[in-house]
């Protein structure tokens, strides 16, 4: 099975191609506000490095967030368009699960910077997965299990708070959702039509459209 994966929900933009239990090609960079500009040439380069065409793809995978709203929309729109163009299904996996899957240790707490002095957070143990939540680090500290490993850019930003968590939490720095992990997980997941894959926001966007309707005027 040939899988193309895209992750853009955080400051990391990544693309990977997977086939027969092997990552054929992967690229990943950190950016601030250039998700769309980075993604298009990266897709072309990764496909070229893997020696495949878009039409060869059997399945697509996308990081559905939570994370940066603009980045999430860039990745999801790109994957939906590709799914329509090549008529293949899509697997959506959250950014929090991708962070947790990159480390074998449990318990692990994935934390993504949500701005507004908040984070997106989820705890993973050997036997269970906690709810994905959004809030201030202090308000979510009770969800951090004893001796947990904490990963993600939210943990980097609020390192002092998480390092002081009850239960001797430890920080693994500089961790982003990885495109290579995304395609590996997608190989064993159930895929769906691209149009049905939705982003995981956890809260309302920072900017919302305010539409006012003028009363009908009669002459």
Give the structure's gist in a few sentences.
The chain has 219 residues and is α/β, with parallel strands linked by helices. Helix content is 29%, strand content 25%. The chain folds into 2 domains: 2-94 and 177-196, Nucleotidyltransferase, domain 5 (2-Layer Sandwich), CATH 3.30.420; 103-172, Nucleotidyltransferase, domain 5 (2-Layer Sandwich), CATH 3.30.420.40.
Helix-strand blueprint:
Elements: E1 2-7, E2 12-19, E3 23-30, H1 35-50, E4 59-63, H2 69-86, E5 90-93, H3 95-101, E6 108-115, E7 118-124, E8 133-135, H4 137-140, E9 149-151, H5 153-157, H6 159-163, E10 170-172, H7 179-186
Parallel strand pairs: 1-4, 4-5, 6-9, 9-10
Antiparallel strand pairs: 1-2, 2-3, 6-7, 7-8
Describe the structure.
- The chain is an alpha/beta fold.
- The protein is 29% helix and 25% strand.
- The chain has 2 domains: 2-94 and 177-196, Nucleotidyltransferase, domain 5; 103-172, ATPase, nucleotide binding domain (Nucleotidyltransferase, domain 5).
- The protein has 7 helices and 10 strands.
- A 5-stranded mixed β-sheet has the order 3-2-1-4-5, with helices on both faces. The chain has a 5-stranded mixed β-sheet with strand order 8-7-6-9-10.
- The N and C termini lie far apart (65 Å).
